[in-house]
Amino acid sequence: MNILVTGGAGYIGSHTVLQLLQSNYKIVVLDNLVNSSESSIRRVEEISGRRIEFFKGDIRDYNFLDGVFSSHKFDSVLHFAGLKAVGEAINEPIKYYENNVLGSIQLFKVMQKYNTKSIIFSSSATVYGNSNNSPLKEDMPTGIPTNPYGRSKLVIENILADLYVSDPQWCITSLRYFNPVGAHKSGLIGEDPRGLPNNLLPYISQTAVGIHEKMFVFGNDYDTPDGTGIRDYIHVMDLASGHIRALEKYISKRGVHTINLGTGIGYSVLEVIHAFETVSAKTIPYDIIDRRPGDVGVCYADPSKANSELDWVANRGLIEMCKDTWRWQSQKLLL
């Protein structure tokens, strides 16, 4: 089975590529390397012992995509490519709609041309907006995402749903992630954000190694046990395995399928900081500042649909997430 992975050099993409290889799929990776590095592909090759066919290019470039599809026959596409920094999205919304939405449209056009009508889309729990109470379930209405990143994901989900209405041959799966964290146990691949991290674990780990003097916690007056926001953190290797299970289940199952990938367990910001301090033996300095606009106090998944339909469970807990993040951050200084 031949799979195209867009954005396969990125954080989630590279970990999924590794599991695809270990599951004996044939894969082709394309990535523009704007927020990633080709070195992650080389490290996946090192871990897996297999060579990866890689194309550097942008999904907004129709001719580039056409060239890739004209030389390969793909059974399905795993679509990770896109920008994901919430703060940047708020400051540069057009950039996000152009990359995420326009890029996806170009991809879907080429898929139609070459009759590749099976896709697993990297979506986000942000599509639920702030109007639903946790645990979040797939049958809840999508809300109004609080930033252009989340809105771009919802727009793409809607485009895919419209594609199916226009042509019921499509097999479409949107995987709504919660908060991916952690790294491969080898310490060779992990999350490597450029600039100030948007996500909590990289922010903590970079503070632990002295990249940042201290970190900021946004609000301690939420209606939670310690006043800080609670989120559903999922280990990236569990997330990657969810893609393999979704591919096995839905690659040729016509329709539009939506699945949450989360643990169903929420941890507060301070719980995560203290867990990281335990595994790293480092003190993480932080200051409490005002809430960020649009943040909610509690957000976590109901993963029961993934549990039952995909026979998938997130197995790794918070301590393992922190250990693997710390191993990656520590070894990254030597890579």
What can be said about this structure in brief?
With 335 residues, this protein is an alpha/beta fold. It folds into two domains: 212 residues, NAD(P)-binding Rossmann-like Domain (Rossmann fold, 3-Layer(aba) Sandwich); 86 residues, Alpha-Beta Complex (UDP-galactose 4-epimerase, domain 1), CATH 3.90.25.
How would you describe this structure to a colleague?
The chain has 335 residues and is an alpha/beta fold. The protein folds into 2 domains: 2-181 and 233-264, NAD(P)-binding Rossmann-like Domain (Rossmann fold); 200-230 and 265-304 and 318-332, UDP-galactose 4-epimerase, domain 1. Helix content is 40%, strand content 18%. It has helices at residues 11-22, 38-48, 62-70, 86-91, 93-113, 148-166, 200-208, 236-250, 269-280, 304-309, 318-332; strands at 2-6, 26-31, 53-56, 76-79, 118-124, 171-177, 179-181, 215-218, 230-231, 233-235, 255-261, 267-268, 286-289, 298-299. The strands form 4 sheets. It has a 7-stranded parallel sheet with strand order 3-2-1-4-5-6-11, with helices on both faces. Strand 1, helix 1 (11-22) and strand 2 (26-31) form a beta-alpha-beta unit. Helix 1 (11-22) crosses helix 8 (236-250) and helix 7 (200-208) runs parallel beside helix 9 (269-280). The longest helix has 21 residues, at 93-113. The chain is globular, with a radius of gyration of 19 Å. The protein starts with a strand and ends with a helix. The mean pLDDT is 96.
